[in-house]
Amino acid sequence: MPFLTIFTAPKAFTNPHIATIQRNALCAWTHLGEDVQVLMIGDEAGMAEVAAESGVEHLPHVRCNRQGTPLVSSIFDLARQASRASLLAYLNADILVTPDFVQAARQVSTQAERFLMIGQRWDLDVTQPLDFRPGWPERLKQETLARGKLHSPAGSDYFVFSRQLYTEMPDFAIGRAGWDNWTIYHARSQGWPVVDITPACLVIHQNHDYSHLPGGKPHYDLEESDQNQELAGGIEHMYMVLDSDKQLIGGNLRRPRPSLLRALRKMEIGLLPTDGRRGWRWSLSRKFRRMRRRLIGSL
Predict the structure, then answer these.
(1) In which domain, by residue range, is 287 found?
(2) Nearest to 176 by CA among 265, 80, 67, 89
(3) What are 21's strand-pairing partners?
(4) Do 273 and 212 lie in a common domain?
């Protein structure tokens, strides 16, 4: 029985660059060992063929919204039904992980029964198929540290969680902003440890443009992202990696290392009004938000 099920909802394989980086990600995941199960969910162009050639399970019958975008709730339900593992991991289809990722999940699972595991990604320009011959994890890490850049702690591209969690989710649109933020907020609101594994392993995002999205706009500029944020309960539920309450350091769960970014974020969240009114608390919270964003931009 596998220890971890990785599931994803890829984009269509019609864009050559998108197809290359998604194939890279699938190859990385299938090289993690026999205790990792991989699922592809959705019915985008080319998905069935790539699933067959990659040897991964394909679940095409996903529910979609009126715009035809797959729903996160359906993706998570299908993965849970098909999974044979105690832990589930949703990864964006352009994310590369090495065996360190599985080791981190094992370390966290021995110290917490219910948890959410997240972290910052490293951005790397990748335009060609990667080499997965023996030694590939070390080569990939060296290349990432040499050419990549650590992304700000505002984005979330992967979520590892106990399979009994997230059985009920709003009908968010996948690939749009907001649902990932709610996922972190929900874990914190339920009292589940939210573990930042950035200090423990490299998780790599293969850079790409937004030509696959309507109008070529970034996902956060789309109407469906506004709809996601509304379903999530508004800006006060837009959590991020900075809102984690644990970090995996040296194989152990510890309180996050103090930082100016975390301090600003804590003040920003603490001042958000719960009644939606835009009074002095709202204004002060926005000031801390601007300070945090300026600091992130200077890193």
Answers:
(1) 260-298
(2) 67
(3) none
(4) no
Q: 101-123 burial, b if ≥16 CB within 10 A, otherwise e? A: bbebbebbbeeeeebbbbbbbbb
Q: Kindly tell me if the per-residue pLDDT of 187 is higher than 90.
A: yes
Structure tokens at 176: 């749009």
pLDDT tops 50 at residue 284: yes
pLDDT at 125 over 90: yes
What's the rounded Cα separation, in Å, for the pair 199 and 214? 36
pLDDT at 13: 97
Print the SS3 string covering 136-198: HHHHHHHHHHHHCEECCCCCCCEEEEECCCCCCCCCCECCCCCHHHHHHHHHHHHCCCEEECC
Our CA angle for 279, 284, 287, nearest 5°, is 135
- CB neighbours of 151 closer than 8 A, spacing ≥ 6? 120, 121, 122, 123, 205
Structure tokens at 52: 């067959």
Stated pTM of the model: 0.91
Tokens of 292: 């945090």
Phi, psi of 198 (to 5 degrees): -50, -40
CA distances 156 to 60, 81, 108, 208, 238, Å, are: 25, 24, 18, 16, 11
CA-CA distances (angstroms) from residue 181 to 196, 208, 236, 237, 244? Answer: 14, 21, 10, 7, 11
Q: Are residues 219 and 275 in the same domain?
A: no
User: Stretch 145-154: mean pLDDT, rounded?
Assistant: 93
Both 250 and 268 in a single domain?
A: no
Same domain, 277 and 178: no
Q: Is residue 288 domain-shared with residue 163, that is, in the same domain?
A: no
- For the chain, give the mean pLDDT: 91
Residue 22 pLDDT exceeds 90: yes
Higher per-residue confidence, 109 vs 153:
109
What's the token pair of residue 59? 């679940």
Domain count, the chain: 2
Reading the block at residue 50, the tokens are: 């790539």
